[in-house]
Amino acid sequence: MILSARIISKRLVESGCLQAGGPGNDPAPGTPMDCEPIKKSGSGEDRKEPGRHLIISPFAPESLQPASYDLRASKDIVLSRGACTLVPSLEWVELPADLAATLRCRSSFGRRGVIITAGFVDPGFRGQLTLCLINMGDEEIELKKNTRIVQMIIHEVRDGGMLYNGRYQDSHGAIDAR
User: Fold this and answer.
1) Where are the domains of the chain?
2) Across the chain, what does the average pLDDT equal?
3) Geometric angle at alpha carbon 4, from 148 and 71, rounded to 5°
4) pTM for the complete prediction?
5) Which CATH superfamily is domain 5-35+50-156 in?
6) Nearest to 99 by CA among 13, 165, 16, 160
7) Which residue has the higher pLDDT, 53 or 50?
């Protein structure tokens, strides 16, 4: 099942990343909260238990779509013709054990010849996402910081319990192949 904007909002409210904004505390897009990534404290305890909450930070209401969330570029960058460019997402994303995500290029970039590779995010992933974008179009494409470039479609994982703990966990910035 693909999560709707309403369910994404509800899960972000539960994680403390979004304040309920609709009538009667409906979890419609409300005020983004200061939502920090999970970090170990000095005592070894987590701020929040990993694998339990959906976190998208910083959250932008205009990025929430009917059945996805648009990830934004974290910096100004140029997509050269015929090349794969690694673009870090502005957002820090944490997926709980019951959610996974697929990444798709927004249609406005697809029409210009941009495609995305490596478009799956496992349950338990934490970090900035490295977006592998290939420009197959006729001209260079300039991306400005905060440009919405990729749709993150969030899916329910039934009976999920296994969490990602691979080489890209807690990524910051664009990460080359390891």
Assistant:
1) 5-35+50-156
2) 87
3) 15
4) 0.84
5) Deoxyuridine triphosphatase (dUTPase) (2.70.40.10)
6) 160
7) 53
